Amino acid sequence: MTIYPKKTMLALLLTIALSNLVHAASDDAAVPETIINKLKSARSDLTYTYIGDAPIASFHEVQIEDGPIIYVSSDGDFFFDGTLYQIKVGQFVDAQNVRLDSERKNVFASLSADDMLIFSPKSSTKAIINVFTDVDCGYCRKLHREVPELNRLGIEVRYLAFPRAGINSASYDKIATAWCSNDPQESLTRSKNGQDDPVNVCDENPVAQHYDLGKRLGVTGTPAIVLMDGTLIPGYKKAGDIAKMATFLCGSGARMVSGQVIAVDGHTENPDPKV
Hints:
By secondary structure, this protein is an alpha+beta fold. It has helices at 6-42, 95-110, 138-144, 147-152, 170-180, 184-192, 207-216, 239-248; strands at residues 48-53, 59-64, 69-73, 79-81, 85-88, 91-94, 117-119, 127-133, 155-161, 224-226, 232-234. The protein has two domains: 6-82, Nuclear Transport Factor 2, Chain: A (Roll), CATH 3.10.450; 116-256, Glutaredoxin (3-Layer(aba) Sandwich).
């Protein structure tokens, strides 16, 4: 039996450990490709985007274009869809929403407002809401009629386009026409009142980018309101309720909120206090 000096033995152990780390890193790097290839072998007609590790061991999140986020095993042999809940003391937390809330917050913190249609308060702005909208959506039209009241309450409304029928639809043409208008805010208002301008889709409109961003951030319908902390409020809400939620996030009490839907009374549903 060969007996190695201590320094030689230590060097051998380090070499083995580093080799294992390199192999593990290589295996990890191959996981996304393995998963996408397996999915394509089953349904090549769908488009998949790898997102990253799921909150559960050995599973990964994959977005199906115009479809759900699914959870796929590392070997690509199994997947499930639906809502994934994390079990915490006194509550069940939607794990996907926690990730998306953080992503939405970061995106809108760095996103330029130049390509949005903005309706600002005449007085000081207390809070900002970002709204994915569609001109052919009845509840979007109803919400738009509340924009003056939102402005009066100090809420700035920033619109992004989300034609639910998709790109190259009639809804796309209408909302892109508004964005391409010499007076986009007035054109959008006319369209939401059923008075569409003649179709005039310019080449440099941001509608497709807004639509893709919305899908990436979990928007599935309109209106979809994103608050300053990244919370997504789906559907129509009254101006007063939106204002209470939006301004609450700007106060000191918002520091105690973590990835939860904020109720209009200033409390949270299933609050998750941060220590």
